[in-house]
Amino acid sequence: MRRKAGLILLALAVFFAALSPLLRWYAFPRLAKIPANQYQAMVLEAKDATLLDYGTMKARKVPKITIVQTLKGNVEESEKIEKTAGKDVVVWDGLSYVVGPDGKMVSRIPERYIFDAHTQEPVHATGEMVDGDPVRRDGIEFKWPFLTEKRDYEYFDAQARVTAPIHYKGTQDFRGVEVYYFEQTIPWTEVKFPKTMPVEGITPESVAETGTTRWYTTVRKFWVEPLTGAPVYGEEIHKEELRGGTLLGDRDKVTAFAGHVKMREDYIHHTVDLVKSNRTLVLLMTSYLPWGFAVLGVLLLALSLYLEARGRRPGDPKPTQAGEPEPVTA
Question: Which of 6, 41, 128, 258 has its CA 20 to 30 A from that of 113?
Fold first, then answer.
């Protein structure tokens, strides 16, 4: 009976020892993915910012500018693309909506981001766009890969429609969460006017006829939780200018927008709580269960060997047999 129990324990030890690396290196990369129907919203603010008044074409100080960013998973489109891509695909329909202090729209820029649900690498398909213009992204946008590394990544800038390095700058603590800090600088670059302008009657085409151009620069900062690859906080030091042309009169340039954009406090709390919850799930797959199974396998192996050793222990010594009595001689 002892021998049979030892064999069962040995089989279980082998099973859990094999399951440990399989869970970490085989199951996790296939199970960890962004759901196709995910929806998220973020509100950012730039206080004491500079904003162009298109009525007077003069820049003025305003108390606050609000940016609402939404990302909505398009399940129908992702299923269509998956049929030809041969992989799990997520399609995010995004919208960046900027509102001035009077509640009126400053700009409205939609975009569609298509990417691999497991690796977050871009997937190029029909419909990939920014503000209605087809684009071909290289590098990540919005989210880093699961198990983010301490290195630079390529990050897509939707305003300039370019990909540039975003640099790893070190490890920090943010609200009790260990994060990697990344920073990207986009130098002054000529960019397109938004197709939806803040003043009725003004279009990108009518502005282009005046010879005026739009220029943009930003310093983009992200604090990323490395296990989930999710940013828990973000900032941008953002500047836009209109340059040249008859629209500005005798001026060479005018500030269209300048401000330090930061995530609103209530959304910081919500994001940190959500990331902490998702971080536990990733730890379960990458650390807790693999190490737990490995330790359990070792313990079962030790118990199996112990039972086997006891089963082979020598029994009690046999009793000594009495010899034949020898005859007594006189």
Answer: 258
Q: Are 270 and 175 in contact (CB under 8 A)?
A: no
CA distances for 64 relative to 59, 99, 264, angstroms: 14, 9, 12
By residue count, the chain amounts to 330
Q: What is the mean pLDDT of the chain?
A: 90
- Are 13 and 293 spatial neighbours (Cβ–Cβ below 8 Å)? no
More confident residue, 188 or 245: 188
Is 262's pLDDT higher than 70? yes
Measure the CA angle with vertex 234, ends 280 and 255; round to 5°: 170
Degrees (nearest 5) of the Cα angle 210, 246, 104? 75
Q: What gap in Å lies between CA 296 and CA 181, rounded to an integer?
A: 37
Paired tokens of 191: 């960019």
- Tokens describing residue 55: 């009525």
Fill in the DSSP letter of residue 140. B
The residues pairing with 39 across neighbouring beta strands, listed in sequence order, are 72
Amino acid occupying residue 162: V
Q: Where are the beta strands (DSSP E) in 128-252?
A: 129-130, 133-134, 153-157, 162-174, 177-191, 213-225, 230-243
Own/partner pairs for 275-283, CB < 8 Å, 24+ apart?
A: 275/177, 275/225, 275/228, 275/230, 275/232, 276/177, 278/228, 278/230, 279/177, 279/225, 279/227, 279/228, 282/32, 282/146, 282/147, 282/227, 282/228, 283/227
Q: What is the pLDDT of residues 159-188, one digit of tens each?
A: 999 999 999 999 999 999 999 999 999 999
In one-letter notation, the amino acid at residue 216 is Y
Instruction: Indicate the pTM of the whole model.
Output: 0.87
- Cβ proximity of 240 and 275 under 8 Å: no
- Taking each helix axis from N to C end, the angle separating 289-311 and 2-22, rounded to the nearest 10 degrees, works out to 160
CA distances from 246 to 54, 210, 213, 222, 242 (A): 14, 5, 11, 38, 11
